[in-house]
Amino acid sequence: MFPTLNLETLPRHHAATVDAIDWTRLSAPEARRLRELGFDEGVGVEVLHRARLGGGPIACRIGRMTVALRRAVASAIQVSVPMPAE
Length: 86
Hints:
Number of strands: 6
Largest sheet: 6 strands, antiparallel
Helix content: 10-25%
Order of helices and strands: EEHEEEHE
Strand order of the largest sheet: 1-6-2-3-4-5
């Protein structure tokens, strides 16, 4: 079983897989940008950096690209993290 959380709360440098994107929480330009960048279910993602202040953007890696997302956009992306092997 993989724990599910949103991209905004994913710990830094943890690999995850996009489970779902709540397209209804995004504006049309935000949704189009995510699709153009390749965000979709089943894609691997990793949070690289967060702004020190709580309202800043989140830098994440999808494939070989590094992209910055607003926290409101990141919170609409549900991800699952594989549990470490014992």
